[in-house]
């Protein structure tokens, strides 16, 4: 997922919205000021090819609708029980609470058809929600345009995020095309883990690009993120080369035990010398999405780690220093870039 997540705590079940190309969305959030210039409306799209251990929107990762069960909101089966007849995956569990068999969920015909499963519409207390609902591109843009007055006055617009927007490439491109036709400013937050041809098509429709760069270390990136950084780094070089006038902000989440050391910051700074026109943001690690993992029947792998005092500021300073001109920096940047220069071509 993207580096700085501001996604919802609950799903948004409901009927499909709008016409045109369709995709799966798990939230539309207005009045965001952290993900592009001005006041923005965020469209959170389902699906991501990466599995960052610290992801604060784990409900975004699956490409299918996914149920989440929050027992703290449940009214109790004795008082309610409306979920039991709604789905064969739900049974009576201990403490007068429902139990969810996720093995059955994985075979849910509604979810496999990318429709809203019936279980997500049965719970009046929203203890059981389904993350992901089908939405048409035209309907999504109509939802974005409800905030058009605020967007226009602030220089804002639409930001596609997720998940990884390019995991639903046709839907993402349709949204960006409709935004341009409606004169809505368009930004996208991407992990960069996508075919470059798709990223190039999206970039041609963008006014602003937010690009995640988590680490330049292949081994660490594979261990903590689930894939190496080669495609991501190569795509960044290529998109900056092909769209030199597109504003790009590279974001790095500073994560304890993963990239909060000096060598990791220097490697990112050296690499960014290959794309001198981009700006860079270092974002602090947080565990605000940890509870979501339990609701999804998963374990939050980061545990209770915390970012050390001064680590974020030190990271920023080290990256900035490594980006400055200098023989050693140039040599290091050349060595690292040589391994990824042609990946995105």
Question: How is this structure best described in words?
Answer:
The chain is of the alpha/beta class and 345 residues long. The protein has 2 domains: 22-63 and 133-338, TIM Barrel (Alpha-Beta Barrel); 66-129, 2-Layer Sandwich (Alpha-Beta Plaits), CATH 3.30.70.20. Helix content is 31%, strand content 19%. It contains 12 helices and 12 strands. It has helices at residues 102-105, 109-112, 137-145, 148-154, 169-181, 196-203, 218-225, 230-242, 262-272, 290-295, 311-323, 327-338, and strands spanning 22-32, 40-45, 66-69, 90-92, 98-100, 128-131, 133-136, 157-161, 185-190, 208-212, 248-254, 279-284. The strands form 3 sheets. The chain has an 8-stranded mixed β-sheet. The longest helix has 13 residues, at 169-181. The protein is globular.
Brief summary of the model shown:
31% of the residues lie in helices and 19% in strands.
Draw up the topology in text.
Blueprint: E1 22-32, E2 40-45, E3 66-69, E4 90-92, E5 98-100, H1 102-105, H2 109-112, E6 128-131, E7 133-136, H3 137-145, H4 148-154, E8 157-161, H5 169-181, E9 185-190, H6 196-203, E10 208-212, H7 218-225, H8 230-242, E11 248-254, H9 262-272, E12 279-284, H10 290-295, H11 311-323, H12 327-338
Parallel strand pairs: 2-8, 8-9, 9-10, 10-11, 11-12
Antiparallel strand pairs: 1-2, 1-7, 3-6, 4-5
